[in-house]
Amino acid sequence: MKKLLVMSMIACMAFSVTACGSKEEAPAPAAEETEAPAETEAPAEEEAAPAEASGDKTWIIAMDTVFRPFEFTDESGEFVGIDVDVMKAVAEDQGFNYEIQSLGWDAAVAAVQAGQADGLIAGASITDERKASGWIFSDGYYNATQTFVVAEGSEIKSFEDLAGKNVAVKNGTAGADFAESLKDEYGFTTTTFEDSPTMYQDVILGNSAACVEDTPIMADSIKVGNLALQIPEGMESDGAPYGFAIMNEANQELLDMFNAGLANIRENGTYDEIIAKYLGE
Fold first, then answer.
1. CB contact at 8 A, 242 and 265
2. What's the confidence (pLDDT) of residue 155?
3. Number of domains observed in the structure of the chain
4. Pair 65, 137 in one domain
5. 8 Å CB contact between 216 and 69
6. Is the N-terminal amide bond of 69 cis, ω within 30° of 0?
């Protein structure tokens, strides 16, 4: 009986030793797992590489589509204009990449506000109202006035002549602000349009007595398009500068490069050549 008890105890000890040995072998796979992170470190370094090439960033610049002579499509189908050439010259001077998106005024503003574009250059007047609503402007790159425009042969010669009549304006523009600031005083109403050509046609067709547009734009449009419109004397605003704009402080680098490039192209004569090319000034 004692022999049987001893034999049973020896068997139990053997089983216990075998069981303990299986736990000591378990760390072997763990050793393999500790090597795994070393294998995953290489891809992490490869993913970090593009961050080192941040200088290759392509900035998205939103523009209007038809705003002669600042942006428009020429006879060969090329997108050209003062804004287009200024942006090109600034980018070449500062050495950054950019892509133009010709969207129309409302869509261009919305794209920058939504972060789908980085900056806007579209004959945008620098105003306190826009600054208050989040626009961050560059230095001015062109000073322009807004003017009332009437149909060819119209008897409207002054603001007083607009009493009881309607004036066409383009949404979100300095011209629209100018008209709104005067309509109560002179007793006229306004109708809003999304683009300049449609606004012009409203006046030509006699639906509106006048429209309001940036003076250099209107003068160019009448000349090139042979439009049946005319600019009365004394119905323009005080001058206000156009500015390049961002709406996200994270794009301050782009704004700084624009300002630096603008100063340089003014100094080296490139800016004057661009203005003379389109306006003959």
1. no
2. 95
3. 2
4. yes
5. yes
6. yes
φ/ψ of residue 77, rounded to 5: 90, 5
Find, among 54, 71, 57, the residue nearest to 99 by Cα. Answer: 57
Residue 150 and residue 209 in one domain? yes
**Letter for the amino acid at 164?**
G
pLDDT mean by block of 10 residues, the chain; 281 residues: 37 36 35 38 35 68 92 93 97 97 95 98 93 97 95 97 98 93 98 94 98 91 92 93 96 98 98 91 60
Residue count (the chain): 281
Q: Which domain holds residue 210?
A: 146-230
- Give the pTM: 0.64
Cβ count within 10 A of residue 20 = 10
Which string of DSSP letters, residue by residue, matches 116-178? SSSEE-SS-B--HHHHHTT-EEEEEEEEE-EEEEEETT----SGGGGTT-EEEEETTSHHHHH
Residues 131 and 244 in one domain: yes
